[in-house]
Amino acid sequence: MSFAKVLLVLKREYITRVRSKSFLLSTILTPLVLAAFGALMFWIMTSDSDTEKLVGVMDNTGVLVEKLVDKNEHRYVDVSDLSIDSVINSVLSENLDAYLVLDNKHIDTNERLELIYGGSGSLGFSGSVQSDLRDIIQEERLSRANVSDEVKALFEMRPRLDTRKLTAEGESEDDKAGFMSAVGFILGLLIFIGLFGYGAILMRSVIEEKTSRIVEIITSSITPMELLVGKVTGVCLLGFTQFTVWAVMYIGISMAAIPVAGLIMQDQLSEISNNAEMSAAMQDSGFDPASLEILSIDPMIFVYFFLFFILGFFMYASLFAAVGSAVDSEQETQQFMPILMVPIMAGYFLNTKVMIDPDTTLAVFASIFPLTSPINMITRIAVTDVPFWQITASLAALVLSFFGIMWVSAKIYRVGILMYGKKASWGDLFKWVRQS
Amino acid sequence: MAVIQVEQINKAFGKNNAVNDVTFNVEQGRIFGLLGPNGAGKTTTIRMINNILTPDSGTITINGQIASAATQKMIGYMPEERGLYKKMKVGEQLLYFSELKGMKTKEAKEAINYWLDRFGASDWYKKEVGELSKGMSQKIQFIATVAHDPDIYIFDEPFSGLDPINSETLKEIIIELKGKGKTILFSTHRMEQVEQMCDDICLFNNGKAVLQGKLREIKASFGQNTINLEFEGDGSFLDKLTEVRINNRSTNFAEIRVLNGQSMQDILKLAMAHAEIHKFERIEPSLQEIFISTVGEDNLKSQEV
Fold this sequence. Notes:
The structure holds two protein chains of two kinds. By secondary structure, chain A is mainly α. Chain A has helices spanning about 5-20, 20-45, 65-70, 85-90, 105-110, 125-145, 150-155, 175-210, 215-220, 225-255, 260-270, 275-285, 300-325, 335-355, 360-370, 375-385, 390-415, 425-435; strands at about 55-60, 75-80, 100, 115, 165, 170-175. Chain A has two domains: about 5-40 and about 175-435, no CATH class; about 55-155, D-Maltodextrin-Binding Protein, domain 2. Chain A is built from 18 helices and six strands. In chain A, the strands form two sheets. A four-stranded mixed β-sheet of chain A has the order 2-1-3-4, sandwiched between helices. A two-stranded antiparallel ribbon of chain A has the order 5-6. In chain B, strand 12 and strand 13 (about 255-260) form a beta hairpin. At the A-B interface, helix 1 and helix 9 of A face helix 3 of B.
């Protein structure tokens, strides 16, 4: 393989794309879209989703309904004076969303309560009703049991947990779990976007050269392998450029407004955190600006990020190129897309689980299995202390499958780029691999 | 000296033997025509000469070297289906293709400027190919083929899709290149172009080289066995002729290949009895006729000739 020729292909691929308007647009728009998406998720998670539902309460105990209405007057309305039939009718006619019948047995025994709703129910809604009822019934039970105020106070106290991590030096440092989880998830997401976005760019580029027959002129000058390597590297560099621009943007923005950014991030993290108690604890403790230093990230993570991105990209990109070479138009890629989509999407969907529980067997497997490891291992590295052997195993598996997939893809590519007109089937691809 | 030596090459795609034991030589400074219907194996052979494909067996040598990355630089290749990067500027694109052929940037720029000047297209340098008309991009395509000044030029179906002006320009340049001692190989399924330009030919049918040699000698070897007839009047008498094959028939013209030694005088008599004869000429057969009589009418898909 001639390095000079690979370099020529690389240069053309990189320069024509980095100068294009679409590159400029995607560089500017992607962070905006991601930020908007993040803000939307934040809004969805924090917004009160069940305020608009109205529950009619038929109270036969005479004490509970008042407390429920006190607790949330928009949600509960006292219908104890009405007959059960008219309550049922108002649920059916949608004046009420649901109704509850409260009896003394619910206070005296652990008999289950029934929430009967018309229209559509929702888990979030029934969960809120359940927690309201628990508080109120427990309070009533305590007061009926005549316990002292001290005991009542004891029940109102809830244990809270702060976490600190023990480092090798034996000192505990401020816990970064929340922040590092977010970093891990975002890095995994970036690799996912990178593999998919740049892979698709490469595939379109291969299809363009094939359908315009430019590839025939090119292969009369250089080998298909030189062309493939040049193209993949060129698009990979394009990805690096974009990531670097984004990193500089992030650093620039956060330096310009570090206190503000820090506050917002800390706030968001505590809101996003699945553990409601912990978020309450964090909010209670107040935000200490000095804790901004937890936003610093171990530089080794970036080294691993680039390592996994490069290897993962070369592996997937060669597959994308093979698919591109087997078709005559972008529409025809459909039948081959599953081989690309399934593993990438699996990595993406697993990523949330890997972030939350980075040390489960599933997470370890996903971070070593080469088709998902580029996305999932970087998340684990950020979130938890990954044993060195796992990183090594993951890299080794990735390198091996990178060579394997590249080898097969290159064979398909060599034949595919010169096959016109006929729609290739899976069987054809198999034949191409064997014949070349 | 043979510039291109093709020896007993075979190439199969699955069960389809695209090229079957083909041997021919292309001599320095001559125009060599590769003829045959579509699907006869011409393009596959050309791709193998260009080292885009490798033969399953047999050898191809270019200037004495086995076809390889090194021999690719000696050849300028214009494929049948042509394309350029639509979003790239003309100058950059030509530079890219020339550099891929191993030219230094400076030489490449000089050569590109020379050819753009020659086509009166210097101000296209900074234009995107997408903005050009079809005729204009055909010229750019041609420059991409010749800019690195190779010894050997290979054109696959060069005249298909060319407008008449570009077609004429291409013919002139091919003749000019030949004058400079360059070697030209082109393929076509349109026989009349070969008659006008080629020194040597090789006929392909079903993946085999069925006839080859110097065009003059081939034609002469068939003798003057054909009648060129021009007439006025009812042409239906032509249908009564037996032991002939009529090519190129129209309302007042027919090219009649006489078979099995039938007397040409009898044909003339019959023609005179039915129509007014303007011209009756004994000629060598056309290439089309040679092709048909070589491969046999039965082996031919008529619509493809």
